[in-house]
Task: inverse folding
């Protein structure tokens, strides 16, 4: 097996697409992430949302809330957009593209959380949005510092040189952590009361895959 | 020895720290939203420190993404606080606004077409802004959007002509110039339609 | 391939049975026979099965298939000596599956389990710390390289002891009846998999058996090295029994305590990593 | 789903799994492809076997809601 970048980090390289020095590449690692992003995007596209059980207070009676598919059209759309942004983030071979995809994931996550009408959830979405916006600073800052010190943003060119400054790597990680904070805000917003499981799951998928990808980038460059 | 880049970096970090401290101390939601915009500019500052042509190429997408986030957040803020826009009557309700628009707008659009390209689009767009501010615009919005979409397609098509049939470059330039004219004009005129319509 | 998967699955379920037996004996109960979990899984396969009307159907079945897929992928990864980082990724995807299992049915109990699984994200951090520490030692994340390193330099258990503790914590946080199993606590009926019954429950059980085997096998491979199949199995058994002892004598922590203990552990290991990176 | 379909899936996926395993041993199929096929088909195989054994396959119901 030929290891990508001659580094024992992510297994064999499968194939790559060359655009000049920007090379989107699939290693075993990124291909696995890609596959999972596709699977969850398809689940979000084709699953019907679950029906929430509600108990009538003070009695034994309970009923299942009916949700019409058109009520969740926006949430489904944003979830698919989020999945697509995740796909981009896990395969791109360019650090700036990665940061842009990360920011897009942030925006779509805001959308998924905010498409619930509850005041509580909207509040959480707003707070999360502010964190995601602030996280743009270290995210873009990290990428900019890498470009300024090494003269390139291509992971393919940077791999194994160790030229990227450690501060830039830390900033990049901080940025991704900020963009991928959404699951915690979901927990905070008691999203148990909101419906649309396949879409809410997308928030989780995107932030975890983003985190996994940034760990790989930081180790490789 | 501290290079210019490093001193710039230090300055940028001082700015970022100040911005973050202000954000930390602010508790009002709306003020925090505005302050986040301030911190975003610091991100642009960091990118601008690269100081090559690439910096420009990176600032634009970064800016677009940040503005998208800002707009999404602003929208959430409006919904969250239950703020409804009130339809206010036009402040400039004077007689000349009923009669002058067609003439002035026509002149501006014509001049814009003569200029052509980006600046032409801006001038012509100004004409349409003026027209729609004065005359009101209920169904104009959708039409302008459609025109803008077709212009975009024509612009892309012109690029394909450049790539595939370089011999026809003049034709492609004409298409691209016309399309960018319509596109910029449409973008500008959208500002005009936003004036009176409560839904926008 | 298939023979490895099936035998690992059965071994994992047996380990679950041993786990229950040891816990029972420590607590002075007779306990179930050790093949109880195996019978349990088979029993579920023979039950009447359907998809609840309230569930999000694609997700409800999809998570079961994914749970089986990721842990079989993890086992094959171990057998081929693949990347430890990829194993970490699969482990994180297991968290998504827990989350999806809980959310996919409309029940409040399972949703609470899912939310707790989000909050207990701290249980993944020790694994990352452990992976990072191993990378500092061996300079590679390929399991085959780590094994080769251990053949030359002896088991990593002693030099990379904090990493071993971290991985031990990770396994402990995913084991049934453990101090950190807040996501399937009994106040939530069965937590995130309350609504998965019949065949779905049986298959999730089987997948988790596979998961237990894979995690223990990883521990032995990464910290003790290649010692042959019988000794490896023995090491796995001993490890499982120590885990059962821990589970038997510790109460289940509250969600808050569980998360803070995991976070503190990660923090300590992170400090050790920084110390190694800077001073050593 | 009808029991016949499940039977077909179970038999088909079982055959593919065994073939890919044997193929990898004999060297006819590369190890990576065999592993990939196993990972993809194994869940389908196990789920279809489970559904085959189950006592009844019916439409959904309102689930148990606790006490």
Result:
């Amino acid at each position: 097996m030929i290891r990508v970048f001659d580094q024992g980090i992510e297994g064999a390289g499968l194939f790559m697409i060359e655009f000049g020095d920007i090379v989107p590449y699939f290693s075993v690692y990124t291909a696995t992430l890609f596959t999972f992003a596709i699977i969850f995007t398809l689940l979000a596209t084709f699953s019907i949302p679950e029906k929430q059980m509600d108990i009538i207070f003070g009695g034994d009676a309970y009923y299942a809330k009916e949700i019409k598919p058109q009520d969740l059209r926006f949430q489904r759309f944003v979830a698919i957009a989020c999945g697509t942004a995740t796909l981009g983030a896990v395969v791109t071979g360019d650090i700036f593209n990665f940061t842009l995809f990360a920011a897009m994931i942030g925006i779509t996550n805001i959308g998924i959380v905010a498409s619930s009408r509850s005041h509580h959830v909207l509040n959480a979405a707003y707070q999360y949005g502010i964190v995601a916006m602030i996280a743009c600073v270290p995210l873009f800052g990290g990428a900019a510092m890498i470009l300024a010190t090494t003269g390139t943003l291509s992971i393919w060119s940077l791999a194994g040189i160790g030229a990227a400054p450690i501060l830039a790597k830390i900033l990049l990680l901080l940025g991704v952590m900020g963009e991928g904070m959404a699951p915690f805000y979901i927990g905070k917003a008691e999203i148990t009361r909101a419906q649309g499981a396949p879409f809410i799951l997308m928030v989780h998928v995107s932030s975890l895959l983003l985190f996994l990808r940034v760990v790989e980038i930081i180790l490789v460059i | 020895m501290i290079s210019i880049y490093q001193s710039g970096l230090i300055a940028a970090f001082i700015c970022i720290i100040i911005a973050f401290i202000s954000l930390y101390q602010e508790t009002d939601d709306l003020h925090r939203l505005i302050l986040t915009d301030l911190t975003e500019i610091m991100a642009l500052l960091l990118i601008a420190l690269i100081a090559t042509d690439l910096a420009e190429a990176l600032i634009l997408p970064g800016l677009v993404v940040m503005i998208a986030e800002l707009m999404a957040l602003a929208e959430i803020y409006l919904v969250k606080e239950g703020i409804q826009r009130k339809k206010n009557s036009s402040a400039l309700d004077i007689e000349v606004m009923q009669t002058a628009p067609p003439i002035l707008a026509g002149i501006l659009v014509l001049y814009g077409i003569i200029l052509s390209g980006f600046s032409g689009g801006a001038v012509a767009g100004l004409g349409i802004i003026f027209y729609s501010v004065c005359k009101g615009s209920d169904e104009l919005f959708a039409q302008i959007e459609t025109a803008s979409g077709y212009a975009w397609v024509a612009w892309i098509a012109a690029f394909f002509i450049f790539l595939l049939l370089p011999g026809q470059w003049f034709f492609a330039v004409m298409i691209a110039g016309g399309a960018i004219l319509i596109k910029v004009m449409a973008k500008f005129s959208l500002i005009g339609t936003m004036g009176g319509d409560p839904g926008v | 391939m298939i023979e490895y998967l099936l035998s690992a699955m059965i071994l994992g379920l047996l380990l679950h049975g041993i786990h229950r037996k040891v816990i029972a004996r420590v607590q002075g109960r007779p306990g179930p026979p050790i093949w109880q979990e195996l019978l349990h899984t088979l029993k579920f396969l023979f039950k009447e099965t359907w998809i609840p009307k309230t569930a999000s159907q694609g997700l409800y079945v999809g998570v079961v298939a994914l749970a089986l897929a990721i842990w079989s992928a993890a086992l094959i990864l171990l057998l081929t000596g693949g990347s430890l980082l990829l194993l970490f990724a699969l482990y994180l995807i297991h968290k998504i599956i827990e989350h999806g299992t809980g959310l996919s049915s409309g029940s409040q109990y399972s949703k609470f389990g899912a939310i707790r699984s989000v909050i207990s994200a701290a249980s993944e951090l020790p694994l990352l710390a452990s992976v990072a520490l191993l990378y500092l030692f061996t300079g590679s994340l390929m399991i085959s390289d780590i094994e080769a390193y251990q053949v030359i330099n002896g088991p990593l258990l002693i030099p990379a002891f904090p990493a071993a503790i971290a991985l031990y914590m990770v396994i402990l946080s995913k084991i049934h009846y453990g101090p950190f199993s807040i996501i399937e606590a009994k106040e939530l009926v069965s937590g995130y998999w309350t609504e998965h019954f019949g065949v779905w429950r049986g298959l999730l059980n089987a997948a988790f058996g596979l998961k237990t085997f894979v995690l223990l096998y990883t521990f032995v491979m990464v910290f003790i090295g290649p010692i042959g199949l019988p000794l490896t199995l023995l090491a796995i058994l001993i490890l499982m029994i120590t885990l059962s002892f821990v589970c038997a004598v510790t109460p289940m922590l509250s969600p808050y305590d569980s998360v803070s203990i995991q976070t503190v552990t990660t923090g300590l290991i992170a400090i050790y990593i920084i110390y190694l990176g800077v001073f050593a | 789903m009808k029991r016949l379909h499940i039977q077909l899936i179970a038999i088909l996926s079982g055959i593919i799994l065994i073939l890919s395993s044997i193929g990898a041993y004999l060297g006819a199929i590369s190890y990576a492809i065999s592993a990939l096929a196993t990972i993809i088909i194994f869940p389908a195989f196990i789920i279809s076997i489970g559904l085959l054994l189950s006592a009844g396959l019916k439409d959904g119901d309102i689930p148990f809601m606790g006490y």
Remarks:
- The mean pLDDT of chain C is 86.
- Chain C has one domain: 2-279.
- The interface with chain A takes residues 53-60, 62, 66, 73, 82-83, 85-86, 88-90, 92-93, 95-96, 99-100, 103-108, 111-112, 115, 118-119, 121, 128, 135, 139-142, 145 of chain C (CB under 8 Å).
